[in-house]
Amino acid sequence: MSVPLRSLALSAPRDADSNHGNVKVFVRVRPFLTRETEKNTRCLVSMSETSVTLSPEEKSISSLEQTPKAGAPSVFHFDRALWSFDERDGFVDQQKAYHLVGEEYLQHTLEGYNTCILAYGQTGSGKSYTMMGDSANGLIPLICQHLFRQTSQMRRNQVSCTVRVSYFEIYNEQVRDLLCDDSYAGLRVRESPSEGPYVENLSEFTVNGYNDIEKYFAIGNKQRSTALTKMNNQSSRSHAVFTLSVKQVKFSESGDEIILEKNSKLRLVDLAGSERASATGTSGVRLKEGSNINKSLSTLGRVISILSANSTSQKNTMVPYRDSTLTWILKESLGGNSKTAMIACIAPTDYEETLSTLRYADSAKRITTVATQKISNVHIKVKMEDKMVLDDKDFEITALQQEILGLQQVLQRQGEKEGEETALLGMYRAKLQVLKRSAEYFEDRMIMTSFRNEMLHERNQGLTLQLDGYDKNFASLMRDVTSVGHTMTSLDRELGELKVRSVEFSDSLQRDLAAFSPEAVFE
Questions:
Q1: Which stretches make up the Kinesin motor domain (predicted)?
Q2: Is 288 known to sit in a ligand binding site?
């Protein structure tokens, strides 16, 4: 019986593998910037494999602070310290950063866990370089490249993998879709009992390879809010969240039955930089941006502090997730169903800002999350469509996606407010949900049909090779038969000649015997 794959989401997960674990914290120090080198600035940071030592600047120790501990270095311990200051022993480049951080969380994602990697630090500390990259790819591109390498190998094990991407920013406490040209900063955040907070009407696109990722990545980065400040020539003025939704479907050997499904999300977050107005030299609009950035990061700090305290004691203090858009969206990643890592990016200079970042990260490492694999054990027979039907559904999906986009734009232009939806907007919203479900259903069917067709194609190739082998063997046998025939003909000819010779010999022998007489012997 044919069953819509989407209904599997309602299936109870199998024996869930719940994992209690702490947020992993990594600290990465960047090299000197040109302006810092020109000023002969001293590096205040040193690292071992798992520790970070911060030495204070001489000017930071006032005469009023001359205590036995004044001027003493501050030492912090983390899961891993990433030394990217200079290329001496232990230097961590982009590839090694992926190996130490990204590889593990990609693997967790493919195991069916929700995961999150977020980069935190002051403006100009190297967060965007770590996450996005520049001349060398950062974590996000490298994770995506390795993801598609693994999905191509999954087909050998009868697994079909679908990847969808979304990309949005939180700018001045408003959510803006970075993959929609007509999007405005005002998408609403809602909360689902099963999935937690999500961005309503956020566009999501299916990608078939890394080239598709690059395309959407470029579109989103072009629209992201950045600006020039004293601390950074291209300062991110928003928090950016790039999400990979990964769906894996395991088929039976015959390809006509679904036996397992995994659903997971990998959330990659590039936070805007913490900053002081005096240090960044901002005013007007930029000052307002900085104020909102600091508000959300301050709330994030309170959330981390409370979660840390709740994890290390018997306290159960209410966590103020909803005090900022950022913390509300990151609710599950910080204190819920997720395996989460924080990369605290620090500058080798600026004692106060770096110390603040390290204290922030030190609190985060105490947070405990409970990650659960989202795996459904199912045994569903799938009725596959032929190629003509597949093409029809592909066309229908495209049409539905266009209509969904149109409806999203209508909803945005209405400027709707909480509790003031008109009957028309309600109708649009209901139709939008129906269209989304229909598109998802047809896309699932298309994936299954495509997978089935690939399997049949592979089997057909195998049979063709077998037939080619049989043809070669038959031709060889025919050559052998022909050769045997020639041999038999030759033997027949030789046998005939032997018979003739035998008759001649017999006649000759009889003549000789007739000519022989006993009298001749005694003469």
A1: 22-367
A2: no
Q: Is the dihedral of CA 382, 384, 390, 392 positive or negative?
A: negative
Three-state secondary structure call for residue 234: coil
Q: pLDDT tens, 48-107? A: 999 999 998 766 555 445 544 557 899 999 999 999 998 877 899 999 999 999 999 999
262 has catalytic annotation: no
Question: Considering 112, 124, 138, 301, which one is annotated as catalytic?
Answer: 124
Cβ(168)–Cβ(202) below 8 Å: yes
pLDDT, one tens digit per residue, over 211-264 is 999 999 888 988 886 533 444 445 567 899 999 999 998 887 776 677 888 999
Determine the Cα–Cα distance for residues 6 and 2; give it in Å rounded to an integer.
12
Q: Judge contact between 26 and 83, C-beta under 8 A.
A: no
As a whole number of angstroms, the distance between CA 436 and CA 362 comes to: 42
Nearest alpha carbon to residue 170 among 180, 183, 182, 185: 185
Asked if residue 206 belongs to a known ligand binding site, the reply is no
Q: Which of 98, 129, 351, 428 is catalytic?
A: 129
Question: Is 129 labeled as catalytic in the residue annotation?
Answer: yes
For residue 396, pLDDT over 60 is answered with no
**Domain 5-62+70-380, CATH 3.40.50.720 — does that match?**
no
Q: Report pTM.
A: 0.71
Judge whether 476 is annotated as a binding position.
no
Question: Is there a catalytic annotation at residue 365?
Answer: no
